[in-house]
Design brief:
CATH superfamily: HesB-like domain
Strand content: 35-45%
Helix content: 10-25%
Strand order of the largest sheet: 4-5-2-3-9-8
Shape: globular
CATH architecture: Sandwich
CATH topology: Hypothetical Protein Aq_1857, Chain: A
Number of domains: 1
Order of helices and strands: EHEEEEHEEEE
Number of strands: 9
Length: 109
């Protein structure tokens, strides 16, 4: 399961509307791909179609799609949003990551 903080929920809704998605019906697709300075990196985008290999979660009124392969890396992750002058944008607080890079966008197990 993936959790969504209140600030991330608000930012997701705003960005989805800006990009023509409906935050009530459409999805946030979260995945893991090879790359980044620590070996694996997070992938986050909006989508409006559920695929056969997807697992659907809903937390804090945000519908999240994760493909089955990425799910192994993301169980227990909290999606947060950090704004402000030094804000980094969306942040993945992943309890499975043993090492993360300074930017917080990649990790290793």
């Amino acid at each position: 399961m993936i959790k969504v903080s209140e600030t991330a929920k608000e930012k997701v809704a705003t960005l989805m509307k800006e990009e023509g998605f409906d935050p009530i019906q459409d999805f946030v697709r979260v995945g893991v791909k090879s790359g980044g300075c620590s070996g694996l990196s997070y992938d986050l985008k909006f989508d409006n179609s559920l695929q056969e290999q997807d697992k659907l979660f809903e937390d804090n009124q945000v519908k999240i799609l994760v493909d089955k392969k990425s799910l192994l890396y993301l169980v227990g992750t909290v999606l947060e949003y950090s704004g402000g002058l030094n804000g980094k944008g969306f942040v993945f607080n992943n309890p499975n990551a043993q090492r993360t890079c300074g930017c917080g966008e990649s990790f290793s197990l």
